[in-house]
Amino acid sequence: HTxxxxxxxxxxxxxxxxxxxxxxxxxxxxxxxxxxxxxxxxATVVVRASEEPPTxxxxxxxxxxxxxxxxxxxxxxxGDAMAFSGAGPETINGRLAMLGFIAALGAEASSGETVFQxxxxxxxxxxxxxxxxxxxxxxxxxxGVKKEKFAFFSPEAEMLNGRAxxxxxxxxxxxxxxxxxxxx
Length: 184
Hints:
Blueprint: H1 2-30, H2 33-40, H3 78-81, H4 88-111, H5 115-121, H6 123-143, H7 155-179
Helix pairs in contact: 1-2, 4-6, 4-7
C-alpha cells in the first residue's frame, strides 16, 4: 500500500514539474526579458496528503442527535391574564363597553330613562350579563388561543371599537350626570 502511495507521489511530482516548465516557457516568451527573471524565481507549492484512517466494517456514519422536545405550552394564570399589561383587561373592558354602550343607547331611546335609572331597574341581570361576557372573554386567554383575523373582523379592529365604546360610554354617563336627563 505504501509503495503505491510513493509511486503516486513520484508521478504527481513529475507531472507537476513538467506542467510548470511548460507554463514557464510560455510565460517567458510572452514577457520582456526583465520580467522573465522574476517569473523563473517563483516558489513551488507542495501539497501532501495523509492516509485516511481505517474504518471498521458494519459501522454506520454517526446518527444525528434527536431534536429537542417542543417547549411545553405555558398555562396562563388568572393573575397573568388580568395583570396591567395582560391580555384580559382591555379585551374584557372593551367588549363590556361595546355591549353596555349599545344597550344603554337602545334602552334610553326606547324608554327615555338615563343610564343610572336603567342600572337601578335591572341590576342583577346586567351584572349576570357582564360576568358571562367576562368569563367568555377569559376562557380563550387561559387556553392560549391566538387571536386571528376573520374577514373584516380583526383583533386590532376589536381593540379600536372597544376603546371608542369606552370613551362613548364614559361621555354618555358624563353628559347625563351633568344634564340630569336622558341623552335622547
